[in-house]
């Protein structure tokens, strides 16, 4: 068998689409028909490029969203205002570096709303639009390519949209479960796999939840997984994947919580496929944690084999060596070659040149082909 390849989901929005996404996010006037045209064109091109690179499980690039973790404020009621982003704990110790990274990566101009009222579903129109555009693009490539779509997990929303309304974290989660469930189920009903983005289980230890002590954070993470499991109770685990990361930025990352402290929580989530960082210098060594953990036979590992913070294009031989590590743990039939994180987590933000994105994904395919012949 040939090892499949995928990526975490988000792709660069480009100079044409980014201003429109930011204008819509800020509530400014925009031409809805022109917006739909621009997004459809971008999604169609993104799917074409992924297929050309040999990606076997493709996404819509989240190109209709301003960002992976804040987009729901146009879909749900209960959010408002704007709060300034608090520096990650590692960057707070290096303010000069933080300023340099901001200049390189781009300013994060999207709205950071808070939860200021009861969270309820407002409309499914945006996800239905995303599904329609993705299906249009996928229809151009026949039945040989699988598709997935991203959605924010309940816990991710609590980490980015600070609670200013509910008496407890659990109460906030409970309403998010009911509010987000229809989006999750709509994606799967449309024939696509659902990816739940869950950096709240790792990154948020030094970002959104950085004031919590470790024990409190671990309890928060556990509650977040319970909410994810409740929201997806009607969806078969094999139709779901989840992504866990420590933040898609080139910082020291010396405040990252070690994988061994959160892996049991991660494995307790319902999605069969787990995507995680395994290529960057801070987390590549943690492949041994996966080796030493008792994993259910139903779990599929989708390790990050290429870094999304550097424009270096990884050599296919290196990618093949990395794949071999994980195939030795669960067998090559339960490994999918993936990326550390997304290539365009927010509109206008990111270090990777769009052209390099496609070179990296092509190298991922070449590395998977090499590994497939050896295993």
Tell me, briefly, the overall form.
Answer: globular
Strand content: 5-15%
Count the helices. How many?
Answer: 12
Structural class: alpha/beta
Radius of gyration: 19 Å
> How many domains would you count in the coordinates?
1
Q: How far is it from the N-terminal to the C-terminal residue, by CA?
A: 9 Å
| Helix percentage range | 40-55%
Identify the CATH class.
Alpha Beta
CATH architecture: Alpha-Beta Barrel
Give the H and E element order. Answer: EHHEEHHEHEHHEHEHEHEHEH
In the sheet with the most strands, the strands line up as 2-5-6-7-8-9
Write the CATH fold name: TIM Barrel
Largest sheet: 6 strands, parallel
Return residue spans where pLDDT drops below 50 for at least 5 consecutive residues: none
Question: How many strands?
Answer: 10
Mean pLDDT: 94
Explained architecture:
This protein is of the alpha/beta class. The protein has one domain (4-374): TIM Barrel (Alpha-Beta Barrel), CATH 3.20.20.210. It is 42% helix and 12% strand. The strands form three sheets. The protein has a six-stranded parallel β-sheet. α9 links the parallel β7 (240-244) and β8. α2 (32-52) crosses α5 (125-138). The model has no long low-confidence stretch (mean pLDDT 94).
Q: In a few lines, what is going on in this structure?
A:
With about 375 residues, the protein is an alpha/beta fold. It has 12 helices and 10 strands.
Entry keywords:
12 helices; single chain; alpha/beta; globular; six-stranded parallel sheet; two-stranded parallel ribbon; TIM Barrel; 375 residues; 42% helix
